[in-house]
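User: Can you recover a sequence for this backbone? Please restate the input before giving your answer.

Assistant: Of course. Working from this structure:
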């Protein structure tokens, strides 16, 4: 069963995480640390959620071409 809302949410969170990594790479600016503190429990939860969304999005590879 497909869950388009879950797919869209995971993709949005992963894009935000990718933008954060881009900011770190180009400008040495960590937006999560700036907003929530360096490795506080809240920032660790945010990093964990981004990681879980990335792992979930791996399922896109197995679903490619199976939709009608």
């Amino acid at each position: 069963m497909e869950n388009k809302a879950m797919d869209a949410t995971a993709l949005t969170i992963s894009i935000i995480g990718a933008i954060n990594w881009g900011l770190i790479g180009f400008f040495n600016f960590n937006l999560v640390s700036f907003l929530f503190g360096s490795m506080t429990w809240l920032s660790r939860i945010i990093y964990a959620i981004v990681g879980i969304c990335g792992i979930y999005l791996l399922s896109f590879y197995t679903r490619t071409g199976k939709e009608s």
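That completes the design. The two ends are 13 Å apart (CA to CA).
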